[in-house]
Every structure is written in C-alpha cells, then in structure tokens.
C-alpha cells in the first residue's frame, strides 16, 4: 500500500508533463532532425516530398542494402516502407520534459542513428544474472555435442529452434512436429545436437524431431539455473537459442525476432559470412514462403512489430569514435 501511495504522485506528474504524440508507425516514419533549428525540420519535409514524386518499394532493396553512412534522402528511402508521412521530432517535442513514443525512426545524421542503435544493443539487454545462467547452459549443451561427435564436432556446435505454440494467434505457424521437421531438415544436420526454446508443455509433441536429432530443452538444465525466478525462463531460452549454429524460428513471433537480433549483433561482431549485408544463418519453419527471409538483405517493411530487420545491426559499429561534443 505504501508503494502505491508513493507511485501515485509520480504517475500524476508524468501525466501532466509527458507529451504523447499520436503517431502510427504503420503510416508515418519517425524522423529526428540534425539539430533544433527549424531549417533542419524543413529539410526533412522537403526530402519526403521529393521521395513521394517517385516512391520506392521495399522490394527494390532486397539484397541491395545502401551504405549506413549514405545521404539522408537515400537512407530515408530505404526505411520508408511504403509510408507517405513523417512523424517529426519537432520543436514542441524538443521542449517537452518527457516524451513517450514507441516507433521506428530515422536520424538525419547517420552517426547519431548508429549511436542510438549501439545504445540499444549495449544497454537495453538482459541482466548479467540471466546472461551467466544462459552461458552455463550453453556450455553444457556444447559439452554434450562434443561428446556426441568428438572428431566431427570438436567445438561442440549445436543448432536451435524456437517453436511457439500456446495461444499464438498466427495459425499458419501452428504445425505438427513432423511438418516442422519436413520444412527445416534441409538446413539442419542429421543427428545434430538441437536446443528447442518453446512454450509447448508436453515434450512428447517433439518426438518426430527427437527421431532425427539429440534434442534438449531448458527443463533439462534446471540444475544450472541457480534458483532464478521462473518468470525469467523465457529470456534465458532466448539467450541459449541465439547461440545456435543454425536457428529455425517462428515467423510473426517477437520472441523469435529478438533471438534474430541478438544473432545479428553476434554475426556483425565476429564478421560471420554474409555480415556485410546483415545476413544471419536463421530460417523460419513456416510459412514456407518466408523460410529464407533472413538469408538475404530485407529492408524494413510492414508489419514492423513482429520481426527484426538487418537495419538493426548491419554495420552498426561504423563511425565509432567520430561522435564528439563538437558534432
């Protein structure tokens, strides 16, 4: 009760000082000018008007990413995703004590744009306690993979799935396990060690996969979790699945989306094959038409919220050190 009393004044203060723009990310692109000068705002509107004269399609950029330090108008074209409006970070918003919005955005200055993405990567992350728990389990899975094939797999590499079941609204992804195997076996190694992140309670559902792989779940490693709150188990599932050599996920799932973003960060850091275009070794088991979407550069496109795109991690460290207090 005391906590509620303390929170009430904060809630009222936030309600009074917060500027809440009615932005709809599916119809407008959030843009942030290079400075508070009105001329920079006018410049962005002029770019948008110029683009609308010959509106590009997201399909124009598949497999053809532009440079992250490209001109502002070229970067805007690539991320516009059929939207015809701009949600401008204008003078009113710049003067507001608190701003609340959740929207895809584009900075006019590419250095600021990449700095923001690095900030998200480096600071909006899971607690060290969860990272360490996941690392213990990844080590245990790798040891099992090594013992299974000491000569062919001395590094203990394993593959991973995220198979969403539960109350997931997208019925075209609710396949039986034999269908999941049929749709994914060509990108996996027969008899490989496989970790499955899932909300499916009855694990005998996965018997068709167990017939082809050495399958493990988070439940198999509870002794390594160290008493962590069960509410965090899903996050640990994500961290483990992100370390798979090959990952097969559930399309439309934000849970799979974050796994792919973490894989993108890793591929960029370690310069894995295809990193120049933001390509990662990830797939979807359904719908079959989207199976290879992460195996090519795909620009931001609608629907935004359910997936991650290479724009989040491709060439993210370019220009590190170029931002100074004088810029």
Describe this entry's structure for a reader.
- This protein is of the alpha/beta class and 327 residues long.
- Helix content is 36%, strand content 11%.
- It is built from ten helices and ten strands.
- It has a five-stranded parallel sheet, covered by helices on one side. A three-stranded parallel sheet has the order 3-2-5. A two-stranded parallel sheet has the order 1-4.
- The protein is globular.
Topology overview:
Elements: H1 2-17, E1 18-19, E2 28-32, H2 38-52, H3 72-79, E3 85-88, H4 91-95, E4 98-99, E5 105-107, H5 110-123, H6 128-148, E6 159-163, H7 177-184, E7 193-198, H8 207-210, E8 214-216, H9 233-241, E9 247-249, H10 254-270, E10 282-284
Parallel strand pairs: 1-4, 2-3, 2-5, 6-7, 6-9, 7-8, 9-10
Brief summary of the model shown:
With 327 residues, this protein is of the alpha/beta class. It is built from ten helices and ten strands. Helix 6 crosses helix 9 (233-241).
- Principal-axes geometry comes out as globular
Helix and strand content put the structural class at alpha/beta
Going across the biggest sheet, name each strand in turn: 8-7-6-9-10
Strand content: 5-15%
Low-pLDDT parts are none
Level of helix content?
A: 25-40%
Biggest sheet architecture: 5 strands, parallel
Number of strands: 10
Order of helices and strands: HEEHHEHEEHHEHEHEHEHE
By DSSP (H or I, 4+ residues per run), the number of helices equals 10
Radius of gyration: 22 Å
Mean pLDDT comes to 89
End-to-end Cα distance, whole Å, is 48 Å
């Amino acid at each position: 009760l005391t906590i509620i009393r303390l929170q009430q004044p904060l809630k009222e203060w936030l309600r009074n000082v917060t500027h809440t723009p009615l932005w709809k990310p599916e119809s407008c692109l959030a843009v942030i000018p290079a400075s508070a000068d009105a001329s920079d705002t006018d410049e962005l509107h002029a770019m948008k008007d110029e683009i609308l004269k010959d509106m590009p399609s997201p399909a124009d950029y598949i497999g053809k990413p532009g440079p992250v330090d490209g001109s502002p108008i070229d970067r805007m074209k690539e991320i516009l995703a059929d939207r015809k409006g701009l949600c401008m970070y204008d003078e009113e918003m710049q003067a507001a004590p608190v701003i609340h919005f959740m929207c895809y955005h584009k900075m006019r200055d590419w250095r600021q744009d990449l700095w923001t993405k690095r900030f998200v990567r480096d600071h909006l992350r899971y607690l060290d306690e969860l990272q360490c728990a996941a690392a213990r389990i990844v080590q245990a899975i790798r040891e099992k993979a090594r013992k299974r094939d000491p000569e062919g797999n001395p590094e203990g590499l394993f593959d991973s799935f995220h198979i969403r079941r539960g109350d997931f609204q997208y019925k075209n992804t609710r396949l039986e396990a034999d269908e999941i195997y049929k749709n994914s076996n060509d990108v996996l190694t027969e008899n490989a060690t496989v970790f499955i992140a899932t909300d499916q309670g009855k694990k005998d559902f996965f018997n068709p996969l167990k017939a082809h792989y050495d399958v493990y779940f988070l439940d198999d490693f509870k002794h390594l979790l160290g008493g962590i709150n069960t509410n965090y188990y899903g996050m640990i599932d994500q961290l483990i699945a992100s370390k798979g050599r090959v990952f097969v996920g559930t399309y439309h799932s934000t849970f799979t989306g974050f796994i792919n973003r973490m894989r993108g960060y890793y591929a960029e850091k370690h310069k894995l094959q295809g990193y120049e275009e933001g390509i990662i070794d990830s797939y979807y088991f359904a719908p079959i038409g989207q199976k290879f979407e992460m195996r090519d550069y795909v620009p931001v496109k609608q629907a935004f919220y359910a997936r991650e795109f290479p724009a989040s991690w491709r060439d993210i460290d370019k220009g590190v050190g170029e931002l100074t207090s004088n810029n």
